[in-house]
Amino acid sequence: MSNTDMNMRGKIIFYEERNFQGRHYECMSDCADMSSYMSRCHSCRVESGCFMVYDRPNYMGNQYFFRRGEYADYMSMMGWRDYIRSCRMIPMYRGSYRMRIYERENFGGQMHECMDDCDSIMDHYRMSDCMSCHVMDGHWLMYEQPHYRGRMMYLRPGEYRNFREMGYGGMRFMSMRRIMDSWY
């Protein structure tokens, strides 16, 4: 595999202990259940690409975005438990970005088409809630607080009819950001 192919695929290494110590597991694609590879995870190193990691199997539960870099003790920094159960590689994307956000489930209520980052859905669109969306182009992160803070959700192209049914019942998404190729 050439260096170009490696950079397009991405690579993340998970370590059981802080500061890149202990057993490790290298991942270069999606992994729905990491529990058979390691019992806990306290640090990781992203050598290339971008990844979403999840605290439950099958890409469920709390999510966190990682881009190229070293995370020597990210568990205590983020207040997570000591394990990661699944991870998803975010493919590199170069093109236009387009998403429609809706105030209510099943694409109801106010609708706004977005092509850029938005640090406050409430301020920019006068929407008190965002309960569904349709991602036409690009890969996005939605955050529960304005200014790209709080828990997040990764969105790739597709229809997301009801955030509550996806396990985000208590969350209100208040900002969103494009995952740009410069992050890789």
Rounded average pLDDT: 89
Helix/strand class: mainly beta
Quote the beta fraction.
35-45%
State the total count of DSSP E strands.
Answer: 14
Q: Which value, in Å, is the CA radius of gyration?
A: 17 Å
Q: Give the spatial strand order of the biggest sheet.
A: 2-1-3-6
How many helices in DSSP terms? Answer: 4
| Euclidean distance between termini CA atoms | 19 Å
Helix content: 10-25%
Description:
The chain has 184 residues and is mostly beta strands. The chain has helices spanning 3-9, 74-78, 121-125, 164-168; strands at residues 11-17, 21-27, 43-48, 50-56, 60-66, 69-71, 86-90, 98-104, 108-114, 132-137, 140-145, 149-155, 158-160, 175-178. The strands form four sheets. It has a four-stranded antiparallel β-sheet. A four-stranded antiparallel β-sheet has the order 9-8-10-13, with no helix packed on it. It has a three-stranded antiparallel β-sheet with strand order 5-4-7, with no helix packed on it. Strand 11 (140-145) and strand 12 form a beta hairpin. This is Beta/gamma crystallin 'Greek key' domain-containing protein. Belongs to the beta/gamma-crystallin family. Pfam families: Crystall (PF00030). It comes from Ataeniobius toweri.
Concise overview:
With 184 residues, this protein is mainly beta.
